[in-house]
Amino acid sequence: MSTVFSGTDKGQRRSFGSACTPAGGAQPCSPVTRGGALAWSGPRFGAFADVLRISGGRLGLKRQENPLWMVLISLCTLATLLGLYTLRSLDDNRLTSWWWVFDGTAPFAFFLMLVAGIALAYGISRLSFRGRAAVPLLFMAAFLVTAGLWQQPEVIVDAARHFMQAKYLELHGIGYFLVAWGNDIPAWTDLPLAPLIHGIIFQVFGESRVAIQVFTSLLFSGTVVLTYLIGKTLWSRDLGLFAGILLLGMPYLLAQVPLMMVDVAAMFFLTLAVFATITAVARGGPLFCVMAAVAITLAMLAKYSNWLMLSVVPVIVLAHVRLGWKVVFQRAAAMAAGVLILMGFFLYAKFDVVAGQISLLRNFQVPALGGWGESLLSTFFFQIHPFVTIAAVLSAYLAVKRKDASYAIIGWMLLIVMVLELQRIRYMLVVLPMLALMAAYGLKTIKRVEYRKFIVANAVVTAVLIVAVGYLPFFQSMSANNIKQAGAYLDSIRAGTTEVHVLPQATSSVNPAVAVPMLDLFTDQQLVYRTDGDAAHAAQSIDELLPWRWTWEVASTEYLPPAGTAGTTPTVVVIQSEVDQPPPDYLMKRIEGYRLKKEFSQTSRVFRYKSIVRIYQRA
């Protein structure tokens, strides 16, 4: 009956019960709820009841929160994160290593940030609101936290590929996209669901990055609610709420939400598939079985890594055999039939594409990315709040002790991660809701709900502060922000048709042409692309095992008209990798009579791939 924010717990109810003993045949005392909060009802003994109620706190009948435990939790939070800050050179994450993120942050400033966060966490942990408000507030909190990060640039070049696929749908319609995807629309190892949705958003709301970010933040908030629903269905409402909240305690995950990538969408649809399958197996009925089949199909169409993680479906079925083998397997067979029918249509239409993609994943992607591994220490302590990880580890012990078959549902995907030694957090992103559920389960070892609330609040508040104070400024210092600023500037001057040139990368193996669709994402102006004499040298000169092979094999600019079809444009944009990079002769002739209007040249000196943007206008 208790809720996470009600300030009550089973331990409290036991202490009340021991103090209320019926005598002389009087009606026994019993706990009831009033307005969602635990109250106490029993025989009315007049003045005696009033005295008991007034003196209960003094006599110890109602246990009070021990401030020493709150101090201890605060000190653990402070010591843990200060320790990570001191050892940040051990963080080998490829995008948000603490060694880079907090390179310019003084220790005392980091200490003050943590102290402020702990104080804020204590205040939040004292809040109380009724049960029905908990889930909407959880959804809104998740959305608002990620909305505050929308200002970050696109820091992963794969966004160029996803934007390009969505652009084809915007330009030519859904019918063309469905037919041409994987053929005239190069797909590399992507599946069509996310770019299909992004393209529809472009058609409905215009080519707006903010519209994509609103959609992705909604997906993240939806994942938080689905995590709550899974926890509530399998165990209790309190556990579900804690799990949903703990999804906000993962800095790397929060930083991924504003990006035009497919990972958050894949996470949402996988979590939806897990919840829909649990509901269908537990409750049955044609509607629930069909909904589960649709959810599983959507998860499969979101990302190939979901195919592996959906091996959890048989685990869900086995965890419910207590309902009866026959009925459970009938429901499972109905879901399987629906998935075979729905996926059958897709595989029949795109079998050659899918077979080629799977071959590419097996023969190139997996070996090539093996050299880009990240340690478990980085993933589970720096990029995920340590309290989440520690609680998740404790949960395994607790589940074995209780012989809880339902725990296998949330533990299965993490077991796959460990067995296969997946060492890239981007490929673990889809399983993080299960990690949050494991952590919430592990927190059940702490009897007092006030302490659990304070631990969770510390994890979430400090994680959000790490992203806001560390990750976001770091992203904005990267050269990727030059593309974002250049796009905003082109809109501010209403540049109109703009001719874009790219120069070869001096220090990186990334095809510099991927910067063109990235610029297109950030501007409403019409771009045309100059292809002759630019950086598009032979792709076979690039080592085939480099992870940037896709940038050379995917034609990310073919959707744009060539520069020759636009005549003489009033604005020319040059994207290069070094400030002092000399322009080739053809470009010098092209910009004769133009003057340099604006230059965006900030770099973080961390990544080899750089995008420095110069904007020229006719004098």
List keywords for this structure.
3 domains; globular; five-stranded mixed beta sheet; single chain; two-stranded antiparallel ribbon; alpha/beta; 619 residues
Word description of this protein:
With 619 residues, the chain is of the alpha/beta class. A five-stranded mixed beta sheet has the order 4-3-5-7-6. Strands 1-2 form a two-stranded antiparallel sheet. A hairpin with a 2-residue loop joins strand 1 (30-34) and strand 2. It has three domains: 10-59, no CATH class; 129-445, no CATH class; 480-618, no CATH class. It is globular, with a radius of gyration of 28 Å. Helices cover 59% and strands 6% of the residues. The model is unreliable at 1-63 and 534-540 (pLDDT under 50).
The fraction of residues in strands falls at 5-15%
Largest sheet: 5 strands, mixed
Main sheet: strand order: 4-3-5-7-6
Count of runs of 4 or more consecutive helical residues: 27
Topology at a glance:
Elements: H1 10-18, E1 30-34, E2 37-41, H2 47-59, H3 67-86, H4 98-101, H5 107-125, H6 131-147, H7 158-172, H8 174-180, H9 193-205, H10 209-234, H11 237-246, H12 251-256, H13 263-283, H14 286-300, H15 304-309, H16 312-319, H17 325-369, H18 376-382, H19 386-402, H20 407-419, H21 425-428, H22 432-442, H23 449-476, H24 480-492, E3 498-502, H25 515-521, E4 527-529, H26 549-553, E5 571-576, H27 585-590, E6 594-600, E7 612-618
Parallel strand pairs: 3-4, 3-5
Antiparallel strand pairs: 1-2, 5-7, 6-7
